[in-house]
């Protein structure tokens, strides 16, 4: 089937030029470095980073309110969910976090309706796929193990990352090291794959949990 691409392309280009307000800058001063056997000493969790802006829906489509609410909704419904790893800063992971615009695109794709508010997007996604599917999608964005810096990612063309969702992987496709363009190839062959946002890399750098912003939502299957 042909890829559904018009709206995602527009959103992806806009996202690549936007700087998330809450977490654009790394939270530690240490320079980016390749992942190694020596873990960073910082234990600030990604959950702490995501909720640092007050944890509310707003009008900024380029921060991470929807993914934050998704994590909280899963943990409320399923307190023992593996998604809880994002609250434990001593457990090393790398997360690829879609901004709010990415979820707006996903909601439009699933429901065939464009929602103008973040709260509407979130409600539409919960109604369309349910909490269990949202949990699976979130886990698909988490890679356990030593944190992957952007420098490492740019040197990892062709690598296949094992995610926290059992049996699910992501392939790294480096399009340009100079422009810091990296595509993550997911398991859904019917839609565009997300790019890392070059202006939202190494979030929470210096800690054992790091994140990189992405401009579309990774899909573990053909949603």
What can you tell me about this protein's structure?
Pfam families: Fasciclin. Keywords: Signal. InterPro entries: FAS1_dom_sf, FAS1_domain. It comes from Terrabacter aeriphilus. The protein is α+β, with helices and mostly antiparallel strands. It contains six helices and six strands, in the order H-H-H-E-H-H-E-H-E-E-E-E. The chain has a domain of 143 residues. The protein is globular, with a radius of gyration of 16 Å.
List the topology elements:
Blueprint: H1 6-16, H2 46-50, H3 65-77, E1 93-98, H4 100-111, H5 118-140, E2 142-144, H6 150-154, E3 160-162, E4 169-176, E5 181-185, E6 209-214
Parallel strand pairs: 1-6
Antiparallel strand pairs: 1-2, 3-4, 4-5
What attributes does this structure have?
three-stranded antiparallel beta sheet; 14% strand; signal; FAS1 domain-containing protein; FAS1_dom_sf; FAS1_domain
Uncertain ranges: 1-36
Mean pLDDT: 87
Distance between the termini: 14 Å
Seen as an oligomer or otherwise, the chain set is single chain
Describe the largest sheet.
Answer: 3 strands, mixed
Query: What's the gyration radius in Å?
Result: 16 Å
Q: Give the spatial strand order of the biggest sheet.
A: 2-1-6
Write down the overall geometry: globular
**DSSP summary, beta strand count:** 6
What class, by secondary structure content?
alpha+beta
What is the helix/strand order?
HHHEHHEHEEEE
Number of helices: 6
Strand content: 5-15%
Helix content: 25-40%
């Amino acid at each position: 089937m042909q890829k559904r691409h018009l709206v995602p392309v527009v959103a992806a280009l806009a996202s690549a030029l936007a700087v998330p307000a809450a977490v654009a800058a790394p939270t530690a001063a240490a320079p980016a470095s390749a992942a190694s056997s020596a873990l960073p000493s910082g234990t600030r969790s990604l959950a702490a980073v995501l909720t640092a802006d007050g944890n509310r829906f707003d009008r900024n489509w380029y921060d991470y309110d929807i993914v934050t609410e998704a994590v909280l909704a899963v943990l409320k419904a399923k307190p023992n969910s593996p998604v809880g790893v994002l609250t434990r800063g001593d457990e090393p992971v790398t997360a690829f976090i879609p901004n709010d615009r990415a979820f707006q695109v996903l909601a439009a794709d699933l429901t065939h309706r464009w929602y103008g508010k973040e709260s509407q997007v979130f409600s539409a996604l919960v109604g369309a796929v349910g909490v269990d599917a949202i949990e699976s999608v979130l886990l698909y964005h988490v890679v356990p193990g030593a944190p992957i810096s952007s420098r490492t990612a740019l040197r990892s063309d062709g690598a296949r990352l094992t995610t926290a969702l059992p049996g699910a992987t992501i392939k790294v496709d480096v399009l340009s090291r100079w422009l810091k363009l990296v595509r993550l190839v997911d398991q859904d062959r019917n839609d565009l794959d997300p790019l890392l946002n070059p202006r939202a890399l190494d979030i929470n750098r210096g800690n054992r949990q790091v994140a990189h912003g992405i401009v579309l939502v990774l899909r573990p299957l053909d949603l």
